[in-house]
Amino acid sequence: MDATPRWLTSEQQAAWDSFIRMQEKLIGRLSRRVQADSGMSASDYLVLAKLTETSGGRMRFMDLAKLVEWEKSRMSHQVRRMTERGLVDKEECPDDGRGAFIVATPAGVKAIEDAAPVHVEHVRRLFIDALSQEELDMLARISDRVLAHLERQAD
């Protein structure tokens, strides 16, 4: 027996729609700016940013895929494209013959170092500057709460 759907109230629907529109518009603009400013795709930028935030600029393949919430096949294609362009290398894991590390190359590190200052300025201009510190603090609390809730839910 199917449960009756728990339809959203008009207020809940408005909040959801507004959140989705904001997210899509913001990510779309930031993605286009990254591409125009650095020649990297938003996916390139994300992978390099996550790799270079770790010590040594390296991460296990599956840990990186989980961190950015991508399926294994999407990460494989992305890594292949980035390897072809010299931004990352793939290294075998000595502890696990099936595992691999993804490593930012010197060219990849330079690419993210060049792109990051411009990217953060766009983040500031398009997002941070629109909100007060109190609103940013509230948004961080809300985001953390939703993330914790998601962690407790089955995928």
UniProtKB/TrEMBL annotation:
SUPFAM superfamilies in the record: Winged helix' DNA-binding domain
Annotated protein name in UniProt: MarR family transcriptional regulator
Signal peptide: none
Residue intervals of the HTH marR-type domain: 1-148
Gene Ontology biological process: response to stress
Entry's Gene Ontology molecular function annotations: DNA-binding transcription factor activity
